[in-house]
Write a structure and sequence with these properties.
Blueprint: H1 2-20, E1 22-38, H2 39-44, E2 47-49, E3 57-63, E4 66-71, E5 75-80, E6 88-94, E7 101-104, E8 107-112, E9 115-120, E10 128-133, E11 139-142, E12 145-150, E13 155-171, E14 181-183, E15 186-188, E16 210-211, E17 217-220, E18 223-227, E19 231-236, E20 244-250, E21 255-261, E22 264-269, E23 272-277, E24 285-291, E25 299-302, E26 305-310, E27 322-327, E28 335-341, E29 348-351, E30 354-358, E31 364-368, E32 376-381, E33 386-395, E34 398-405, E35 408-413, E36 421-427
Antiparallel strand pairs: 1-13, 2-6, 3-4, 3-16, 4-5, 5-6, 7-8, 8-9, 9-10, 11-12, 12-13, 14-15, 17-18, 18-19, 19-20, 21-22, 22-23, 23-24, 25-26, 26-27, 27-28, 29-30, 30-31, 31-32, 33-34, 34-35, 35-36
């Protein structure tokens, strides 16, 4: 009897502990506040300012020793990177609603909500407006917040995203994994985006910059190609300072990235990789679609082999985490060669059979892709949240790799891809 009473007492005590045992957890919530701007307000806001620190870096771009880093929805940092071991912040271009960029010769093209702007960067210390195409973009998204343009009233409707830090009591058994942002009870991973490499098939008299794998802007021939959520928009830039909007191509929903290779455009979406023939640059035509499960996917191509990363997280919750290797030698009939499991792959880059894959909060991988049937890991760097990379190849002291992540921009020498050597880091200075 005493034994039974003791067991009842212990059970009651454990139940009491289970009800009162709480943990303290700090979370970062995204708070959305509606905003409205007039087109005139936005156009008058573009200006060159003093250099500032990175806060919420997005896409990266490289041209002639200078590095351009998008500050999501705010503008572009201009950095003198002629010495990658000691990059110097030069200036900041305030461009409201900016998320993408591309550079040809001395003209930088950037989106500013509904407009495409052209800027003369001949002198990076004194950048001048060069031209503009008005009312060419209809809508978009930043950090999960949608914006749209009402051309009748000349108004942009957007949402300001604030990051609110909050410490709450939680059930210790139901604590969530670290490294995510939280809003409305739903986990979100950071979704800054990178850029796509410029095509070597562009006319020799033009000099294009280089970007990463997460681009929505790219250059080919006398055209700038831009992709939105469901369409491809062409701009004739034969007159560089007067970009002229060309045709729109409906691509279906969930479009994410664009990558040029030879005379083809590889367009990544949440449901597959679309291949377009750009042999007539003014009228790209659909060749094929390589379909996959719902996933976030950038793509890069080298030697008729496409490397596609698929990941879960954000709005791609049903996806698996993997690397698909696809034969695109016949662009009308892409063929899957092999799939490799990954942890949470984001952006990627390829140079001379060395593949770099950003694994989000799991870090950065270098891979040997000499045998596409046996791609092997060479090195993994952790302690960073890797999002996108640009392998630039030879520079005066080795081989230069740029990597952007939540905590800043890293630069590595990858002369030995088994042992990447960090050259420098430009850190972020976030208030959250």
């Amino acid at each position: 009897m005493k034994s039974n009473l003791l067991l009842l007492f212990v059970a009651a005590l454990l139940a009491s502990w289970g009800c009162t045992d709480k943990c303290r957890e700090t979370r970062v919530f995204r708070q959305f506040t509606p905003q409205t701007f007039t087109a005139a307000q936005l156009r008058q806001s573009i200006a060159q300012e003093e250099a500032r620190t990175l806060v919420n870096p997005g896409k990266i771009y490289y041209k002639d020793g200078y590095l351009f880093i998008n500050e999501v929805k705010e503008g572009i940092h201009v950095i003198d990177n002629r010495n990658p071991e000691n990059p110097k912040m030069v200036t900041f271009l305030r461009i409201p609603g900016n998320g993408d960029m591309a550079v040809r010769n001395n003209i930088l093209y950037a989106d500013s909500y509904m407009d495409l702007v052209a800027l003369d960067i001949s002198n990076p210390a004194s950048i001048k407006p060069a031209g503009r195409a008005e009312n060419v973009f209809r809508n978009g998204t930043f950090d999960g917040a949608w914006w749209s343009f009402d051309s009748t009233r000349n108004l942009v409707s957007d949402q300001r995203v604030d990051y609110v830090t909050q410490t709450v009591n939680t059930n210790c058994d139901n604590s969530q994994p670290s490294g995510n942002w939280w809003w409305g009870g739903v986990a979100f991973f950071a979704d800054t985006r990178g850029l796509s490499n410029m095509s070597s098939a562009a006319p020799s008299q033009n000099s294009n910059g280089t970007g990463g794998s997460m681009a929505r802007f790219t250059l080919y021939n006398n055209y700038l190609y831009t992709v939105g959520q469901n369409e491809l928009v062409l701009f004739d830039i034969q007159n560089p300072t007067s970009p002229r909007k060309g045709s729109r191509v409906n691509l279906g929903w969930g479009i994410e990235t664009i990558f040029p290779y030879k005379d083809k455009l590889f367009i990544g979406s949440t449901t597959g990789m679309h291949i377009y023939d750009a042999s007539n640059p003014a009228k790209p035509t659909h060749l094929s679609t390589f379909q996959h499960a719902m996933a976030c996917d950038p793509v890069v191509v080298e030697n008729d082999i496409a490397y596609v990363t698929l990941r879960s997280g954000n709005f791609c919750t049903r996806a698996s985490n993997q690397l698909d290797v696809v034969d695109v030698s016949n662009a009308a009939a892409p063929r899957l060669i092999k799939t490799y499991p990954m942890q949470n792959p984001h952006g990627l880059g390829i140079d001379a059979k060395t593949l770099f894959v950003c694994e989000g909060r799991h870090g950065l991988k270098s891979l040997d892709a000499n045998s596409i049937l046996n791609i092997t890991e060479l090195q993994r760097l952790t302690g960073m949240d890797a999002y996108d990379v640009i392998p630039l190849g030879n520079y005066d002291r080795g081989r230069l790799l740029l990597m952007i992540g939540k905590d800043g921009l890293y630069q590595f020498d990858y002369s030995n891809p088994r042992s990447l050597r960090q050259l420098s880091k430009i850190p972020v200075d976030r208030p959250w």
